[in-house]
Write a structure and sequence with these properties.
The chain has 818 residues and is an alpha+beta fold. The protein contains 34 helices and 13 strands. The strands form four sheets. A seven-stranded mixed β-sheet has the order 3-4-5-2-1-8-9. β4 and β5 (204-212) form a beta hairpin. The radius of gyration is 32 Å and the shape is elongated. The model is unreliable at 1-17, 32-69, 332-350, 480-514 and 813-818 (pLDDT under 50).
């Protein structure tokens, strides 16, 4: 491993050449197997940073442990990968062959047109390759600095489709260019394109983004598209990235004489693709941060800190905030913070390096405030810790993050987090709702945490809607000293409780290693990670990403401070604690609707966030009681020697749960329970176990136990019941047909009956057996059954049956409370 093997030009017969390639392939496999049995790399590679940092993401950490024994982790630990060096063969072998064909094709085009441009792979592709995963999302940069000024990415893209037709032997059968340019982008000299290439045999379609290496970027106050110097160097291009682990580049080139269009004995396209050489360009310490598992922004280590600070902190309010946070002396003279929780990258030294790290990250986040959300996403997904300078820089981007970033952009990032897995999603919510921002940000009407800035934005009509900061604002007088800044030490708010908190529901935040490196933080927000995680533990793994995102958001909001003290419940209602829990669910519904509107969320995400809270409120409210429930409860005891199974009140509660949770959609056509994962007709958000666990984070323990018992009873297999069978009840009012079918389902599950009720004869026999045929008619009508031969026409219903008793549907829209 690490030995550079150059594929020779095609001079010998093809058989000899193929034998050589096969031998090299076997050698690579043997080397990988030998190294796999070697000892594990040091903790700096396999685990969390030293210093007692807590595991941020169990899912991400297990993935990292699996990768730690890979060739990528060994290469990082052994120093085989370094700036300016060629990648070892075991890392190159992870690049899919079809993407090597794309790179070889682009290099052949540049060579055929005598363009002295560098081809660079950038972004997450390099990070994922070094972390040991199979990279995707191929993003390419072209360094056009040495080319004629007329040569741009657009002119290169214009020539690729014709070149593919001229050179079919390069194994790229077609190229389709989709230029990503808005009118504003054209005015600001943005030169990017997306290409769809069909490569290989059998053909595969690959999407590739092209852009130039960017030099200096200038953002204005009203548009998030910057003015760019498109003739920058690779080092300048790396500096504009938001994270060092995403600022690494791979310079891809062909060894001399081995390209598919080289003179003399040029190699075959397949061999030329495998002969590519990959040189790592790591200008800002991305490799070191991968080893330390830290997220930080790149910064110009050699620049003068005071000059950079003067260019970044341009406005009086920014300089005042910097003074409050200790980033500037009180007199406004040049100064620098003396906080840092991990070593500065190579080339940085002392106080100036620390100041540059903070001030440059302020610039990075303010240029595009969405990078705040991206940093949280990578921290949660990879289990990496955020450098303390991040929390010093965040307050300078909050206003723009809340007011200038479109909600749809935030929603796209949130979906990516949900796609990363359940644990990264919960860790992200912990950071958003539970990590207090610096004191300087919280004071004067500022935000206590990031959640109000992240969950909301301007909707398509331009109306800004967000979570209310009040739900995460600490009580008056609460405080948190810097020495206890880690939110993992904070206890759950007293207004939240859960009867059965599992041990795994411990608050797990990727807090910085050294709390002393943080600015003085505000008081912990009134948010219970344990309650959120207890409810989220009941989310089925099979639910789609957007449904999981909406449900987890509902759990997070319901775990905040929501409802003010409510008056005592009316007689016959549930307890005062249950009434408060129902009121909190009502308040949480307004919050999730405001957040979803601001995010321009999909209907799936909106329903998944709103419906569980609506169901919690419905289950904790007292359902209406009707005389027919007592009749049906009495009928249920007839098949058990007269022993009473349920009362009329409990039968009404069972019916209420059946209708509120739409349990009928979770059964197969034959009446067998199939659950959330096997239900084909389920509406997003109707997740019974999750909804009950969500209610249990606030309601009384006896209430939760009763709800669990009722759900367990209703999940029994039952008979298929056809609407046509209701012809056995000619006096059934039409608006009660749905309610009657639901009552029959509940009755059969109480009894354990599974015989189909699919026609009039079977249902009539069932009702006569339970003495319900005449009793129900007498219950419904004022004439007490004397006119049952008339059916339902011309008869007067009792007042309580004049309207359907089906549960009302959840509201699709709503307004946040004043």
């Amino acid at each position: 491993p690490g030995t550079l093997v150059r594929v020779p030009p095609r001079r010998a017969a093809s058989a000899r050449y193929e034998t050589t390639i096969f031998a090299l392939f076997l050698l690579a496999i043997a080397s990988s197997l030998l190294l796999t049995s070697a000892s594990r790399p040091p903790r700096a590679v396999t685990g969390i940073l030293s210093g007692g940092g807590r595991l941020a993401s169990r899912g991400a950490a297990s993935w990292m442990r699996a990768a730690s024994g890979s060739s990528s982790a060994r290469a990082l630990a052994d120093g085989a990968v370094a700036h300016g060096e060629l990648l070892p063969a075991e890392l190159v072998a992870r690049v899919p062959h079809r993407e090597k064909l794309v790179l070889s094709f682009v290099l052949a085009f540049l060579e055929a047109n005598a363009l002295p441009a560098q081809l660079l792979v950038n972004g997450g592709y390099v990070r994922d390759l070094l972390l040991g995963s199979v990279p995707d999302d191929l993003d390419l940069s072209l360094c056009l600095r040495e080319c004629d000024p007329a040569v741009t990415v657009a002119t290169v893209m214009h020539g690729l489709p014709g070149f593919a037709l001229e050179r079919p032997e390069l194994n790229v059968s077609s190229v389709t260019i989709t230029t990503i340019l808005s009118d504003a982008s054209k005015d600001k000299n943005v030169d990017t394109a997306k290409a769809h290439l069909v490569v290989g045999s059998p053909p595969e379609r690959i999407e590739v983004d092209f852009m130039p290496t960017i030099g200096e970027e200038t953002y204005d106050e009203f548009n998030r598209v910057p003015e760019r110097d498109v003739r920058g160097t690779p080092e300048q291009d790396a500096l504009r990235r938001d994270l060092t682990i995403g600022a690494m580049l791979l310079h891809v080139f062909q060894p001399r004489g081995s390209g598919p269009s080289g003179g003399g004995g040029a190699a075959a396209p397949e061999a030329a693709a495998e002969a590519l050489q990959w040189r790592l360009l790591d200008f800002y310490g991305g490799l070191a941060d991968l080893q330390r598992r830290v997220l930080r922004s790149p910064y110009p280590a050699g620049a003068d800190a005071s000059l950079v600070r003067a260019s970044v902190l341009r406005y009086a309010e920014e300089r005042e905030l910097a003074r409050k946070m200790g980033l500037l002396p009180s007199d406004g003279a040049a100064g620098s913070p003396a906080r840092s929780d991990s070593p500065a990258p190579a080339g940085a030294a002392g106080e100036g390096a620390e100041a540059l790290q903070v001030v440059w990250w302020i610039k990075v986040l303010r240029d595009d405030p969405l990078r705040v959300l991206r940093a949280l996403r990578f921290s949660a997904k990879l289990g990496f810790q955020l450098h303390s300078s991040f929390w010093l820089a965040v307050p300078f981007a909050l206003s723009s993050l809340q007011s200038k970033v479109a909600g749809s952009r935030k929603k796209d990032e949130l979906v990516k987090i949900a796609r990363a897995g359940r644990e990264p999603l919960l860790t992200f919510l912990d950071l958003s709702f539970g990590f207090p921002l610096p004191n300087a940000t919280c004071g004067g009407g500022g935000l206590p945490c990031l959640a109000p800035a992240l969950f909301g934005g301007a909707d398509p009509k331009g109306v800004a809607q967000f979570l209310s900061p009040a739900i995460v604002t600490p009580p008056e007088g609460a405080n948190l000293s810097p020495s206890s800044a880690s939110p993992s030490s904070a206890s759950p708010p007293p207004f939240l409780h859960h009867s059965e908190l599992p041990p795994s529901c411990e608050l797990l935040l990727p807090s910085p290693v050294d709390p002393a490196g943080l600015p003085p933080l505000g008081a912990p927000p009134p948010f219970s990670s344990a309650a959120m995680r207890a409810a989220a533990a009941k989310l089925p793994q099979a639910v789609p990403e957007e449904e999981a995102l909406g449900a987890a958001l509902a759990a997070a909001i319901y775990s905040c401070r929501l409802a003010p003290p409510a008056p005592p419940p009316p007689p016959g209602a549930r307890s005062a604690a249950d009434a408060l829990a129902a009121g909190a669910a009502d308040a949480a519904m307004c919050e999730v609707l405001a957040a979803c509107d601001g995010l321009s969320a999909s209907n799936e995400m909106r329903q998944s966030a709103h419906t569980p809270l609506w169901c919690v409120k419905a289950l904790l409210d007292t359902p209406p009681q009707l005389g027919m429930f007592e009749l049906l409860a009495t009928a249920a005891s007839r098949g058990d020697g007269g022993q009473r199974r349920v009362g009329g009140r409990e039968f009404g509660e069972l019916l209420h749960m059946w209708q509120s949770l739409k349990l009928a959609s979770l059964f197969a056509p034959d009446g067998a329970w199939c659950g959330v994962g096997g239900a084909a007709r389920r509406t997003p958000g109707y997740l019974p176990d999750f909804i009950l666990e969500l209610a249990g984070t606030r309601c009384e323990r006896p209430t939760l136990l009763r709800l669990r018992e009722q759900l367990q009873l209703l999940q029994r297999d039952g008979p298929p019941i056809s609407g046509e069978a209701l012809g056995a009840l000619p006096s059934l009012p039409p608006h009660l047909r749905g309610t009657m079918i639901a009552c029959l389902h509940v009755l059969c599950r109480i009894e354990g009956a599974i015989a189909p009720l699919s026609d009039k004869a079977s249902l009539r026999s069932f009702l006569e057996e339970h003495a319900l045929l005449d009793a129900l008619d007498a219950e419904w009508y004022v004439d007490a059954g004397e006119g049952k031969e008339k059916g339902c026409k011309g008869r007067e219903l009792r007042p309580q049956y004049e309207q359907a008793v089906n549960r009302p549907k959840p509201k699709k829209k709503g307004k946040k409370a004043e």
